[in-house]
Each structure stands twice: as structure tokens, then as C-alpha cells.
Model the fold of this input.
Amino acid sequence: MAFILCSLSGVLRGRLSSPWIRGKTLKRILAAMTALALGVPAAGAATVSRTYSYFSIGGGTLDEIEAELGKHGPHVESSGQRHPGATQMKFSMRVAYSENEKRCRIVKGTVSVKATVILPKWRRPKRADSDVRLIWDTLSADIKRHEESHIIIAKNHARELEDALPSIVAPTCKEAAEEAKAMMAKVLAKLEKAQNDFDKVEGLNFERRLIRLLIYRLQRMEAYEKAKKN
Ligand SMILES: [Zn+2]
Done:
């Protein structure tokens, strides 16, 4: 059993309030760029259960929202900072053995992941204008997608472990169990690296991604307005 905590590490710090995101540039960006389809990673067969918990934030401007996220966001031990979202994951493994006088073989492994996702909920003040609302809707959806991706990465590793467990054969079942534990530790170490790599890439792409998502929303809004007029 292991415990992993990861989050959208630090991508918001100093970025949410950067000038590109402020006010009226959105329409200009809309004219210059096009939306791309979002890729959805493949899902494995290991079982995953999800629980959601929320923390409330206030703030009427992007600067205030950023400050609120920094104040109320979940604390991530690995970085010592607060984050806009986080996912706690608990792995458990069950193995079935087949034993005779000579050896013990693992015949089946079941790995389950229990995920608790912590997400922000914005209590929008009346004074918040529609630009801020649009950006928040886009950002919060992206935070959710990001955390969901961590779960999918975990699920794929859980599946990999499930597939590898039946290769274990040992003189006794006690030794087979030890090998299974070692195998799990190895997969979890690999998983941790995969999660960190994912955070790195997501951090680098953050601005570009958010702009693309904003454009997509604006296009949908425009199409809706057009359809209403006709
Ligand atoms: Zn993350």
C-alpha cells in the first residue's frame, strides 16, 4: 500500500494575473488562433474509485482569486506550497496464489486505486465581471482535467502491475508475496516519476493551453449568439 500526493504544481503562481489574461485581449486572440481537439488518454482495467472534496474561495478579480487559491488551496507536502487542486491516491493490491509441494505461483493480481480529488469552488461576488467568470470557468475545468489525468496515469500503472503479477513464481507463497510487494514498489516509483513528468509538461504548456481553452469557449459563445439572432 502506498500514498501519493500530487498536484498542479505551482503553475498558477505569478501566471494567472499576467497581462495576457487581462481584459480585452481575448477577442484579438480569438481572431488569431484556432481551437485544437483535446486528447484523452487510454484507460486500463484496474478499478478506480473517486471521491471529490471542495474548498471555497472568494475574490472578484483575477488577482484576488489567485491570492485566495494561494491561501485556501490544498497543501502539498512534497513542495511545501498550496495548490489550486490536488489528488490523494491510495493503492491496494490483492493476489491469489496456487501452491504445490515445489512452488507457489501468483495466478491473479487485483490492484485498486482510491482517489480523493480536492478542487476549488468559487463563491462569485456580484461585482465580478463576465471576463473574470469566463476565465474562472475555463481555469477550473482545466484544474479538474489535470487532476483527472493524474488518476488515469495511476490507473494505467495499476493495470501494468496487475498484468505483471501473474509472472511471479517462488519456492514458497511467502516469498511470492515478497516479490509482489517489491514489484509494486517498483511500479509506484515509476508512477511517481510519470506524475512528476506530467506536472512538468503541464506547467510548461499552461499559458498556451489556457488561451486555447478560452478561445474555444469564446467561439462556442459566439456561435450561440449567432444562432440566437438567426
Ligand atoms: Zn499535477
Q: What stands out?
A: The first strand starts at residue 2 and ends at 7. Residues 1-44 have pLDDT under 50 and may be disordered. Residues 2-229 form one domain. Residues 6-9, 146, 150, 199 surround zinc ion (CB under 6 Å).
